Amino acid sequence: MATGSKYVRYRNQGEGANVHNVARFGMPVRSLFISTKFLSITQKTEITDENGNIVYRSKSRPISLHDKTDITDARGNQVAHIERKVLTLRRVHWVTMADGNRFEVSHELMHIVKDVANIKGLGWTMRGNIFQLNFEVYDERDNVIAVIGQKLISIKDKYAVDIYRPEYEAEIVAILIALQHTVRDRKAASSAASGSGDDN
Question: Is the pLDDT of residue 39 over 80?
């Protein structure tokens, strides 16, 4: 069964690709499904293929200052390392891939009208509702790389990722996990600000 929403592109394993995505971009080459568990002091994520086979795993300690996360493949080989940059006016996470390539995923704090997120170091752009994690990623030539959709109501954080450039799937997974942390940090900061306002 294909999903039909223009705005929520999440789909479960076994369902057809979103019909609006297919109309715009064609059939994805590969799809991944991401599920994150938030435990007491750790965050664990499993990334599976359409058959439910684990492709990647990630583990992090989000309450630490640097919010370090490691992504490994199914055999335990290092794929990427993500780390929060401290002492900056933006919310920035550095991503270092296993081949040494490095880029950053950031959230601009000073934009009042809209949320702005950037991928610096790859020449890629993101479009859509980034902070509801329903968006597309494009390369420097404006060709689609991936379409990401979050499940809106779920006990766990769940995402469907339709990939059009499979050679970049590890980078896409790392970007999405970094954005998860960015959104979590923003929500925590917003809650803290609301709480301090209630005391006045």
Answer: no
Residue with tokens 């994805």: 28
Amino acid identity of residue 5, one-letter, is S
Summarised one tens digit per residue, pLDDT across range 158-182 is 999 999 999 999 999 999 999 888 7
Q: How far apart are CA 110 and CA 112, in angstroms?
A: 6
Q: Which one, of 147, 149, 134, 140, lies nearest residue 103 by Cα? A: 140
Segments making up each domain of the chain, as ranges: 19-192
CA distance 66 to 146: 28
Identify whether the C-beta of residue 87 lies closer than 8 Å to the C-beta of residue 66.
Answer: no
CA 58 to chain centre: 12
Does this model's pTM top 0.70? My answer is: yes
CATH of 19-192, one of 3.40.50, 1.10.3470, 2.40.160, 2.60.40: 2.40.160
